[in-house]
From TrEMBL:
<dbReference type="Pfam" id="PF13439">
    <property type="entry name" value="Glyco_transf_4"/>
</dbReference>
<protein>
    <submittedName>
        <fullName>Glycosyltransferase</fullName>
    </submittedName>
</protein>
<dbReference type="InterPro" id="IPR028098">
    <property type="entry name" value="Glyco_trans_4-like_N"/>
</dbReference>
<dbReference type="GO" id="GO:1901135">
    <property type="term" value="P:carbohydrate derivative metabolic process"/>
</dbReference>
<feature type="domain" description="Glycosyl transferase family 1">
    <location>
        <begin position="172"/>
        <end position="334"/>
    </location>
</feature>
<keyword id="KW-0328">Glycosyltransferase</keyword>
<keyword id="KW-0808">Transferase</keyword>
<dbReference type="Pfam" id="PF00534">
    <property type="entry name" value="Glycos_transf_1"/>
</dbReference>
<feature type="domain" description="Glycosyltransferase subfamily 4-like N-terminal">
    <location>
        <begin position="14"/>
        <end position="161"/>
    </location>
</feature>
<dbReference type="InterPro" id="IPR001296">
    <property type="entry name" value="Glyco_trans_1"/>
</dbReference>
<dbReference type="GO" id="GO:0016757">
    <property type="term" value="F:glycosyltransferase activity"/>
</dbReference>
Length: 366
């Protein structure tokens, strides 16, 4: 089997990292992979060991010339199917190109943002199968009219091993300028509105007063960075809230945290939550999108209503006041990752979708 994958992301964030895991796993199973991705991207460099890489210009949702580029590559490669892994133009332009070439199409949906029913009916007509990376996303698509015959769920996954190291708290404190006996909360998310950082900031004055050693580290970059920093300054918490930016050494950082907080308003699943669970860190998060699949209430964390700063503060206090409960949740989180979010499970799930689709196409021609 030969699969042509299309991923529009330039950096190895959640979605592109999933593509890399998939390429590696498929290659081990004897699948011939070709990857189309942006020229100069991190994914292009990392994926070369697992796929033939075709790095091309990809300019986003309105890059109509992408249709012609992909159509030509499909004609050269002659894949059995095309797997579109991202939006950023790949979902629509890639779907049109594959349809023109007469090749079956799989599209992975990674976000739970709502779409109009007419848009669902039109756009997803381009795809033979739509793979939701969480049950939460699948429920959104189904509610918007996605037929069950087309929709499948294959959860995203992580490799837990890099996160299973013991935390080096001395390095951690020195790296981020923290006092010796601090309590460290981490937020790992793009600095954008739907990640809900402002609700944690609303909860912080009370928490900072109750826990003098509390420090919050906000990992990530995004357009809200300056306004969040200004809010922290206005609250008088600039010495307690730190903005280290994007870090590529999370396997070293996460085991040093006492708690991960994710107050998102919308979330497809939350790769950072899977990473925190793999590191044995308890989690407080919003009950939104696919988050309840990554954070099980009372098992590896606590869930609160989205946008509720009071409930968020209450859940954080509960775990900070009960270290034994927090420790137990961390251990149960590691077991959850091993049980339900393995890379092998994700690869096999996608491969099953491929085989089902090709079998259906074969039957239709006979």
């Amino acid at each position: 089997m030969k699969v042509l994958h299309v991923e529009g992301g330039r950096n190895l964030y959640g979605g592109a990292r999933q593509v890399l895991y998939l390429l590696e796993g498929l290659k081990r199973r004897g699948i011939d992979n070709v990857l189309v991705c942006p020229a100069g991207s991190e994914l292009a460099r990392e994926a070369a060991a697992h796929a033939e890489v075709r790095a091309i210009p990809m300019a986003g949702d309105l890059d109509f010339r992408l249709i012609g580029r992909l159509y030509r590559i499909i004609g050269q490669v002659r894949p059995d199917l095309v797997h579109l892994h991202s939006r950023i133009g790949a979902d629509v332009m890639g779907g049109i190109a594959a349809r023109l070439a007469g090749v079956p199409v799989v599209h992975s949906r990674r976000q739970d943002n709502p779409e109009m029913r007419w848009a669902v009916a039109v756009k997803y007509r381009l795809h033979d199968r739509v793979v939701a990376i969480s049950e939460g996303i699948g429920q959104v698509l189904a509610s918007e009219g996605m037929p069950a015959s087309k929709l499948r769920c294959v959860r995203s996954a992580i490799d837990p091993e890099p996160f299973r190291r013991a935390g080096d708290r001395a390095w951690f404190r020195a790296e981020f300028g923290l006092p010796e006996n601090c309590t460290a909360i981490g937020v790992v998310a793009q600095l954008i509105e739907r990640k809900g950082h402002r609700f944690l900031l609303e909860a912080l004055p009370e928490l900072a007063e109750r826990y003098p050693g509390l420090h919050v580290l906000v990992f990530g970059k995004g357009p809200l960075e300056s306004s969040l920093i200004e809010t922290v300054r206005r609250l008088g918490l600039a010495d307690r809230v730190h903005f280290p930016g994007f870090r590529d050494d999370l396997p070293r950082i996460l085991p040093c945290l006492d708690l991960v907080v994710h107050p998102a308003l919308r979330e497809g699943l939350g790769i950072s939550l899977l990473q925190a669970a793999a590191a044995g860190v308890p989690i407080v998060a919003s009950r939104a999108g696919g988050i309840p699949e990554a954070v099980r209430e009372g098992e590896n964390g606590l869930l609160v209503p989205p946008g509720d700063a009071v409930a968020l503060a209450t859940a954080i206090r509960r775990l900070l006041d009960d270290p034994e409960l927090a420790r137990d949740m961390g251990e149960r989180g590691q077991a959850l990752i091993d049980r339900e979010f393995s890379v092998d499970g994700m690869v096999e799930g996608n491969l099953a979708v491929y085989r089902e689709l090709l079998a259906d196409k074969h039957a239709a021609f006979n």
